[in-house]
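Journal club prep — side note

Before the paper discussion, L.F. wants everyone to see what a predicted structure for a comparable chain looks like in token form. Sequence:
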Amino acid sequence: METNDLLFKPEETSFTEDPGKSGECLWKLLIVDDEPDIHRTTKFVLKDFQFDGAGLEFISAFSGAEAVELMRSNGDIAVVLLDVVMETSHAGLDCAREIRETLKNRMVRIILRTGQPGEAPERRVIIDYDINDYKHKTELTAQRLFTAVYTGIRSYRDMVSIEKNRQGLKYIIEASGDFFKQQSVKKLAKGVLTQIAALFRLQNSFFLSSQGFTLTRDAEGELELIAATGQYEKGREDEILFRITPELKDQLSRVTEEKKSAYFGDDYIGYFPTQTDKHHILYMENCGREQSQNYRDLLDLFAYNVGVAFDNTYLNREVLNTQQEVIHLLGEIVENRSKETAFHVVRVAEIIGVLGEAVGLPPGERELIKSASPMHDVGKIAIPDVILLKPGRLTPEEIEIMKSHTVIGFKILSSSNRKLLKTAATIAHSHHERWDGNGYPLGLKEDAIPLAGRLTCIADVFDALSSSRVYKPAWSMERVLDFLKENRGSIFDPNLVDVFMENKERIYKIREQYTAEACPA
């Protein structure tokens, strides 16, 4: 072979230390060797290397331990050229094992280069270590090095593409379990967007510095991030939106105002209206015009399907909000009729929210109970005014009539198949049950009482005692807390009393926030 075809040769006078262009998207190549000449010569031979329109970024390590640390902080290294004998006779093999087993990096392609084959026999290394290629330095020409790196990067690209498709499929499968939840729709959008980028090998979007994201913009002009790739998916949502350049913001505004998709250079911005007041905007950076029709068809389908999903989500949310508003208004009607203190049902709901969070209720269940609780006394709508508004002590007969509001409320609400109203029915029926079994209407005991009823019981009693009523003045906070403690394990769930005491400062703030003075009509 010709002398100038050898990789390991004297340094050329035309060699440049940093052949990569500033700001260029590059494949990362880690050179691990304790001989500086090997680093310089490798960089020189591969200085004009190109794959898929991108060159190489050279990273140097002079020991196996240094290489492991660089791999730890650079998870997107594509290929490692790894010497065997460095600080020890097996440092390269130890490094390879650390990369695969400790760092769990199965993507990077490892090419073992050795000048002492006897230290690491090829057959044993291939069998015992996850090595992708094995080269003798004395046999490695410039062309063979180029070929090894080229095939290594191509393999890395394909593996990353497969992984991105796997991640996209995972998002889609997770979303399908509970499709109409807001978070599930975001997972769906994330999954499909990930699949699109992997399908068209948008390396700039996924693996380097250019990215893609999906946004919704409501009638007031606010932006909500749904799904993102690349730099736009890292960090908090407000930080991500802040990274959008003024030029891109102008382009997004133009597409939204004109209600028409457009290319800006090689960047694509798609506009997709929905049946609500939302606009869906799809942005793909560096997708290229040459495949514009393929991109348009696929991206249009993506945005349309996600738009349909969000339309259904918005509709479901509107139905739920309507139910909650009706429940709140009915609760206020009962409250006003019985002349109870203003904002009673609001405070009870907020206190339930604090207690529910403290006992570890999932957010969905906590919000359901909180939203349904304003209907706890809806049955009082059927109690005669002469009893409901009586300022003095009730007779035994009147007490029995008053107790009937739990059953009346249950009958009013339980006829609905809506989860929210069924929860409200449970609360109306059980919020006067006692932990010791001496409550009404069913005499339930301890855990047989639904948690929603137990939560409402302690929140309702606390607020009632600390507020003025037609039949009594407000108690002092100290007296109210003493009452809760004294009836721990008799009226109230003992665990809820403990949780109440631990969170009493938050509950005091609720009372201060929701008063007639703080919230004037």
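L.F.'s comment for the group: The chain has a mean pLDDT of 77. Keep this in mind when we get to the figures.
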